Amino acid sequence: MRKNNSLKERLHEIIFEADTKAGKLFDLVLLGLILLSVVVVMLETIPALHERYFEWFYAVEWFFTVIFTVEYVMRLYSVQSPVKYARSPFGLIDLISILPTYLSIFVAGSQALLVVRILRLLRIFRILRMGRFLWAGQVISKALQASRHKIAVFMFFVTQLVIVIGAVMYFVEGPGNPGFSSIPQSIYWAVVTLTTVGFGDITPQTPLGQFLASLVMIMGYGIIAVPTGIVSAEMAAAHRRQITTQACRHCSLDGHDDDAVFCKYCGWKLNEDSDTT
Amino acid sequence: MRKNNSLKERLHEIIFEADTKAGKLFDLVLLGLILLSVVVVMLETIPALHERYFEWFYAVEWFFTVIFTVEYVMRLYSVQSPVKYARSPFGLIDLISILPTYLSIFVAGSQALLVVRILRLLRIFRILRMGRFLWAGQVISKALQASRHKIAVFMFFVTQLVIVIGAVMYFVEGPGNPGFSSIPQSIYWAVVTLTTVGFGDITPQTPLGQFLASLVMIMGYGIIAVPTGIVSAEMAAAHRRQITTQACRHCSLDGHDDDAVFCKYCGWKLNEDSDTT
Amino acid sequence: MRKNNSLKERLHEIIFEADTKAGKLFDLVLLGLILLSVVVVMLETIPALHERYFEWFYAVEWFFTVIFTVEYVMRLYSVQSPVKYARSPFGLIDLISILPTYLSIFVAGSQALLVVRILRLLRIFRILRMGRFLWAGQVISKALQASRHKIAVFMFFVTQLVIVIGAVMYFVEGPGNPGFSSIPQSIYWAVVTLTTVGFGDITPQTPLGQFLASLVMIMGYGIIAVPTGIVSAEMAAAHRRQITTQACRHCSLDGHDDDAVFCKYCGWKLNEDSDTT
Amino acid sequence: MRKNNSLKERLHEIIFEADTKAGKLFDLVLLGLILLSVVVVMLETIPALHERYFEWFYAVEWFFTVIFTVEYVMRLYSVQSPVKYARSPFGLIDLISILPTYLSIFVAGSQALLVVRILRLLRIFRILRMGRFLWAGQVISKALQASRHKIAVFMFFVTQLVIVIGAVMYFVEGPGNPGFSSIPQSIYWAVVTLTTVGFGDITPQTPLGQFLASLVMIMGYGIIAVPTGIVSAEMAAAHRRQITTQACRHCSLDGHDDDAVFCKYCGWKLNEDSDTT
User: Fold this and answer.
1) Whole-structure pTM value
2) Which residues on C lie below 8 Å from A236 (Cβ)?
3) Is the pLDDT score of B15 beyond 80?
4) In terms of domains, do A86 and A170 share one?
C-alpha cells in the first residue's frame, strides 16, 4: 500500500485504524469520552441533581455533542465511501448519538435518548485488539445462531402457553382480584411467573388460583431447562469443533487438543507453526 | 392422482393444502384473522374498553365467529373423512374456537373462552412450510420425550419435598404469620420459593423461619440444576445424533455416528467420501 | 424357596411383595389410604375447615392411625427380622407416621406432624414395578452422587460469599433501612438475592446499595451456571456411559447406540441377546 | 529433611503443617475459633442482643482478637520468609481479621468488619486434606477460567443491554411511576428483572410498560441460558479430560483422551493395558 501523507489519509489512519500510536490514543480517548457522556446523561435524569446542576449538564452535553459531531464529520470526510459508512450500523449509531441534542432545541426532553451512545462502546472490540474476547464473542454468537430455530420454536410455544395460562387465571382470579382484571394483565402475570421473575405486584388470592399458580411455577421450573439445554448443546458442539481444527499430516486424523504436540493416533509430530487458537 | 375440478376437491386443495397460490393465500388470511380475533377477545376483557366499545366488540366477535363457522363447515364438507377430522386435535380446536360465542346466547360471560383460538396458530408450522422450524421442534420434543421418565421422577421428589417443607414452615412460622396459616398455603409458599419465583406475598418473619427459608433457597439453587442437566444431556445426545445425516447406501437408514465405518443396522460399508458435516 | 402357607408367610407375601394379585391390591389400597390421610392432615390446618369439621377430622385421623398401626404391627410380625425392619428408613417412616396421633393425647397440636406420612409414598417405586422410572431415578442419583464433591465445594464458597455480601450490605444500607438492621438479616437478603428468588420483603434503598445489589444479581446470574454446569456434565457422562455398555465380540470396541445391530467399526453382528437397556 | 527441634521449627510444624497430631489439633481448634468468632460478630449486630449483652460481646471480641493476634505473630515468627507470608492472600486475610478491633479504639462501629474472618475458613481445604474436595474445586475453577473470556463478553453485552432497557423504561414509565424516576434507577430495575430476581419494589404500571417488561423477562429467560451453556460446555470438556487419568510412562504427563494410542506430548506409545476408566 502506497503511503502519501495527505491529511485525508492521515485522518483515516488515526480514526479508523488502531495500529499506530496516534490511532490507539485516539480510540482510547474516544472510549473515555463516550463512557463519560453516558454517565452524564444518566446522572442528569436524577431529579435532585437535575434541579441543582441544570446549567452544568446543559453545557457538558453540548460540549460532548460538538466533539462527537466533529468526529462524525471527520469520519465522513476521511473514509473512502462516506455513504457506505453512514449507512453501516456503526455509522447510524454515531449519528443517533448526536442528533438528540440538536433535536432538543425544538423538542424538550429528548436529550435522554443520548443514552444510545452506550452502543458506541461496541467499538471496544476493534480498538483493543482483544483477539481472545472477539473469538469468545464469535463462539457465543455462533452457538446462538445455530440454535436460533430451536429458540424461535420454543418462544412460539411459550407465547401460546402464556396466553392460555393468562386466560385461565383471568377466569379463576378475575372477579375478586384487581390484579387479574383483564386478560392482557393476566398474561403479564403469567410471564412474570413462568420466567421465575416473580415481582409479586400481582398474586393469586384464591386457593384454586394458588394451586394453579403452583402448577405454572413448577412448569416454569422445567421449561427453563429447555433454552438452557439448547444453548448448552450448541455451545458444547462449538467447543468440540473448536478444539479440533488441526489435522495430523501423517494419518490426517484430527481431534487433537490445543496443547497437543504429537498426534495421539500415530505419534507423528504435529505441525507446530499452525495457529490453532 | 387424477384431477377433476369438482367443488369439493378444489375446496380441499385451498383449505387443507398450501401448495397452490390460492391455498397459500387462504392460509395467510386465516392466520391473520385468528390473530386479530384473539387480540379482540383480549382487549374486550379490559374494563375501560369493554364499557365504551361494548357493542363494537359484540359485532366483531359475531363477525369472526360466522367466518370461522363457515370455514369449519367447509372443512367438514371438503375433507374425505369428516368424522376423522372432527375428532382430530385440530378439528376439536377449530370447534372449540367457535362454540363459546353461540354459548354466550344462553350463558353470559363465556366469550372469554374464545382465547383458545390462539391454539389454532399451531397450524402455522404446516402453512409456512417452515421445515427448519419443524425440524427444530422435533429435536426439542424428542429430547423432552427421551427425558420424560427422569423429569417425572424429579417432579415426584420435588412434590414430596415441597409438602415436607410446607409442613415444617407451617410449624415454624404458622402461629404468628398469617401467610403460613395452613399447610396448603405453606406449600404454596414452598413452591414459590423453591422454584426461585419469589413473589414476596408470603415471607418468613421469624429468625428461624428466615434461616430455614435460606436453606430452602440454596437447595432450590441446586435443584434447578437437575432438570436443566437432564434436558441438556438429552439435547446434546440429540445433537450428536442429528449432525450425522449420512445414510447407508444399502439399507438407506441414517443416524450413524461420525466415526462409523460400517452401517450399524445392516453391516454394509458406509460411503467413505460422503461429507458428514 | 419352599412354600408353606402359614399365616406369617402369607402376610409377608401380601404386605412386602407385589408379585401376587393380593399383594398388588394391598399396595394400591395402601397408597390410596396414605394419599387420603395426607390430604386430610393438610385440610385440617385450614382454620375455616378446622373450626367447622373439627370432630370429623378427629375421627378420620384416628381411623387412619388405627389402620396404619395394624399394618405396622403386621409388618413387624410377618417380617423375618423385625429389628432390622424397624430400624430401616422405611420402618422408621412407618413408625413416625402413626406416633403423632398417639402423642396428641398428651401434647396438643402435634397432629400436623402426620404430614411426614407423605414420605411413605416413596414405596411407590417398589410397588408399581416402574422399572423405567426406577432406572431414571438411578441415573439422576448417580449423577448427583458423582457431583457431590463439586457441589459441596460450590456450596462452601456460596456460603462464604453470602456472609461477606451480607456484611457489606449491612454497612451500606444498615443505618437507614430496617431490612438490613443486623448482619444475619442482611445475609438472609443476600441469599434471597443471589439465588434469584427475590421476595422483595427487604430491598436496598440507597443508590450505592442498589448499585451493589445489581452487582450481586449479575454475579448470581453467573453463579447459577455453576451447579447447572456440574450436573449437566455428570448427566451427559451418565448418558454416554449408559448407551455404551455393549462391546463388539469381534473388534471389542464399544460405544454402540441402543438400536445398533451391527458393529459400526468392523461390521460384525452384535450380540443380540445382550440387554442394553 | 534434617530435623532439629528448635522452637521455630516446631512452631512451623504445628501452625503451617497438618501432618502431625499437634498440627491437626491446632488447625481444628483454629477453625472452631474462627467459626465461633464470626458467629459472635454476627449476633452482635442484632439490636436486641447488642443492647442486653453489650459488655459480653466486647469482652469476647477482645478475647478472639488477642488469640488471633498471638497466632499472627507466631506465624510471622515461625515462617521462613515473613514478608512473603504477610503479603500472601492468606497473610493479608489474617491481618485484616484482627485490625478492626484495634481500630475500634479510635473509630466506633468498625467491629462489624470482623466478619471478613469468615474468609479464613478457606484454610479448611489445606487442613482437612480433603483431596477430593480440592480436586473438585480445581475442576470448577479450571472450567471457570477456561470460560472467563466468554463470560466477560457476555457480561459486556448484558451491561449494555441493561442500560438500553433502563433508558427505554425511563421514557415509558418515568413520568408517572416514582420507581422509574431516573435512568440509574430504571437500570437497577432492568437488572432485577433480567436476572429473574424480581424484587417487586419497582414494577411497571402502564400497559405499554408491562408489555415491554414481558419482552425483557422472556429475553432474560433466554439470556440465562448463555452463561449456563458456557460453563456446562467447559465443565463437560473438563469432565472428558479428567476421566482419563492415564499418564504417559515416558514423560509422565496425563490428560490423554480415551481413544489416544500415543502420548500427545512426547509421542511415546501409551500403555495399552492400563485401565482408563
Assistant:
1) 0.80
2) 236
3) no
4) no
| CA gap D78, D73 in Å, rounded | 9
- Which of B122, B197, B258, B261 should we substitute to test contact with A (largest number of A Cβ atoms within 10 Å)? B197
Best of D202, D208, D230, D232 to disrupt the B interface (most B CBs within 10 Å) is D232
Residues of chain A with pLDDT under 50: 1-2, 244-245, 272-277
Residue A262 pairs with which residues in a beta bridge?
A269
Is the ipTM above a cut-off of 0.90? no
Same domain, C153 and C43: no
Q: How far apart are the first and last CA of chain D?
A: 37
> Residue A159 is part of which domain span?
146-236
Helices marked H in chain B: 7-16, 21-44, 47-78, 82-87, 89-96, 99-103, 124-127, 131-146, 148-173, 183-194, 207-223, 225-242
* % pLDDT > 70, chain C: 75
Find the CATH number of the domain harbouring B150: 1.10.287.70
- Spell out which chain A residues touch chain C, with contact meaning CB-CB distance below 8 angstroms: 196-200, 228, 232, 236
The CATH code of the domain that includes A57 is: 1.20.120.350
Closest C-alpha to D246, from D231, D262, D233: D262
pLDDT of residue D105: 76
CB pairs under 8 A between A and B: 138
**Mean predicted lDDT score pLDDT of chain D:** 77
Same domain, B15 and B125: yes
The verdict on a CB contact (< 8 Å) between C200 and A196 is no
B220 and B124 in a common domain: no
Which among D182, D199, D232 has the least Cβ separation from residue A45? D182
Interval C211-219 mean pLDDT: 90
Q: Clarify whether residues B124 and B20 are in a common domain.
A: yes
Domain annotation covers residue A269 = no
Q: What is the pLDDT of residues D51-85, one digit of tens each?
A: 888 888 888 888 888 998 998 888 888 888 888 88
Closest CA to C112 of A168, B167, A250, B75: B167
Both B122 and B186 in one domain: the answer is no
Residues A108, A46: one domain? yes
Note whether C44 and C111 are within 8 A (CB): yes
- pLDDT tier, D160 (very low <50, low <70, confident <90, very high otherwise): confident
State the pLDDT at residue D130. 54
Has residue D256 been placed in a domain? Answer: no
Say if C267 falls within a structural domain: no
Q: How many domains does chain A have?
A: 2
